[in-house]
Structures are given as C-alpha cells and as structure tokens.
Amino acid sequence: MNRRQFLTTAGAMLGARVLNSHAATPSAVLRGKAEHVISIWLGGGMSQIDTFDPKVLGDPKNKKAGAYYASIPTAVPGVSVCEHLSGMAVQMERVTILRSVHHDVIDEHAAATNRMHTGRPVSGTVTYPSLGSVIAHERGAAAEGAPPYVVIGYPNATRGPGFLGAKAGYLYLTETGRGPAGLSQPEGVTASRQSRRERFLANLQQSQSRTDDARLLDYDAAIAQSLRLSGPGFNRVFQLDEEQPSLRSRYGGEFGQRCLLARRLVERGTRFIEVSHNLNFLNGSGWDVHNTGILKQHELIRELDAALSALLTDLADRRLLDKTLVVVTTEFGRPPEFDSGGGRGHQGKAFSCVLAGGGLSHCGAYGQTDEFSKKVVQDPVSVPDLFATIHAAVGIDYTRNLYDGDRPVPITDGGTPVARLFA
User: Which domains, ranges and CATH numbers included, belong to the chain?
Assistant: First the structure.
C-alpha cells in the first residue's frame, strides 16, 4: 500500500467513525419503560416448529419432515401456534414471537447456554457477565431491601456476573417450598444473637485499614446485602400460601409456582428474575427431545402454556404487565427432520424466542423462517440483537461500554434492537 492509498483508507475509516458516533447519539438510542424482567429459560432446546413457529405436519414414523402437532390460530390474524399453546393463543396481542433468532452453536448445550445468557461466544481472556447481571449492574434493585437478580433453579456460571464482580451476582433457590437456604438463620440464633454478631462484624471491618481491592469491596457488599435480605420482611415473598388457591391452581405445578414466585419478586422490587423450566421428570429429557423424549413433549408445552398464560394475566390484572418484560429463551431450536428414534436433533441457525409485556408495541410474530422452519428468510434477529432489545426495553443504553478493569467492553456484541417493537 503506497502513501496515497494509506491516507485514503485512513480518511475513510475516520469518516466512518464520525458517522457512527453520530448514529450513537443519545437521541438515536431507543428506550423503553419496563422496570423488571422475568426471563423463562427452557433448558435443553425448545423445538420452535412444535411450539411457536408451526409448519406443515410431518410424520416421524415415515421420517417425513415437519411439525409434530397441528397448529391453531391466535388473537393476531395470520399468526398461529401449536395446538398445545391454547392459553397463549388468546393472549398473542400482548406477545411477539421472535421467529428468526439465530446463532452458530449447534451441538454443544453448554456453549449454546452460555451464548444465550451472555450474548457472546466463550472467551479465553474475558469472563463475560450474564444478561441478568448486566441489568442488575445497570439498574440495581427496583426497591430498597430487594435483591436485584434472582435465579429460580440451579446455579450455573453462565448466569454469573463475570468481570462485573459479586455485586452483580444472583440470589438463587432450587424449590419454591422455601426461600434461599443461605438467608435462613440457623435454629437457636435469636434476634439478639444475630445483632451481636453483626456488631462484631462491623467492629472487625472498622478496625481494618481502607482498601481499594475490588474483590474485597465486592465481598463486603455481598455480606451487607445478605444481612439486609435475611430478615422476615424479604423472606415473606416466598410464602406462596398467601396466594388464593384458585390462582395457584391456574399457574399449575412446580414450574408454575416458580412463575408465581417471580411475580411476587417483581412486586417486592427485584429487577431481573430467571425461572428455569428444565424439569425432566415429565418426559425424562426435558426440552432436549431426542429419540423417545419427544413422545411426551406435549406435556412440557402444556405446562409452559398454563404457567405463562397465567403469569401474563396475573401481571395484567395487577397493572404490572407494561412494567414487566417477560422473555422466553432456550439454547437453540430443533430441525424439522426426525432422528432415528423419532425425536429431533439440534438447530441453532433458526429458532424462536418470545417477548411479552414490557410496554412494547407487540405484533404477534416478527421474523420469518422457510416452509420447514429450517432457515431464516426475513428479518433475522441475532443473539446480540435480542440482548439489545431487552436492554432498550428496560431503559439501558445498549450502545455504551462496560469495563473489565480498564478495558472497555461493549454492553452487547454489536446488537441492534428490533425497532418495530418500539414504534
């Protein structure tokens, strides 16, 4: 490259940067008004062709590609869903199915789970924070005395705060029958004993010299939050028997009770709640429907339908739906072809995620796949685009940087929100 070519190229790059800086001005950044996120995680890989993106019926016995179930119309003309989603069908005006989500991870559940929680490929040099941790870091709790981020399900590194540190971590519980074990005082520890222990801890902390070590500061912040949450005020949120039996019945079993608890956490002021629906006992494999796992897939779908439709109705009745973005995600989808056992393999190049409520301008469905839901043919939505949409919905600037020490890290991996939802 000669001197003239170099100067021409450098000038073009500088001009592009100037244009991009104008494109990222605050006036151009989309901002929603949601205050909370309930993220429902379907671990194992929900089949989009058998749920939210139904196509022509297939035949597993004769290995004819296609949907496993018939489809039904919804409240939005032209938008259909699987016959086992009848509760969601009547609420589709509150919902947008993103049918064109895609990534390049196919055969590895762990890598795909990481991608759908952090929005990025696994890195050997950076431990990226999860979506929940980023929102907790940016927005904090919505009320004093509430944790900003709760996971209802088993903990996992992909849900963690990464380089943001412990303050952006999560509180978790694995069952709805009781609150987090770490917040329960042992038997015999009276209020007065607990008070003495806290005074002793405070004296120890005051006797130490000041520190700028971020790890120690994060640890102290985590202890302080645990002490605030361990009292009866917050723990009452886990007493589901305060709810009307008829409402609890509408939500359904354990997964439904998790969704009900998520609503109570929203009322208490939690900013981001992940609810896991990867309970495998219904069909032996959860959403990972290889081989015969697909035979009872409809039971999973019905359970999801009952809980999700009850949650949307409950939030709307309490005037919380416009303030609460409900998200349904999974690590990847399923191909239209059937495997040797009649089930389905993995597919990352085209699958569905769902957004509901959150004050968005919903349209029933966005994006389009081909006749077998095998590839995206219109309005593709990358995982960074999905993350940018969620950030925008809760009023977070999706163009800004986070910092890993002194290193700037874009808050998404180049994502752009789905502008149609902010019309």
Answer: 29-184+230-422 (3.40.720)
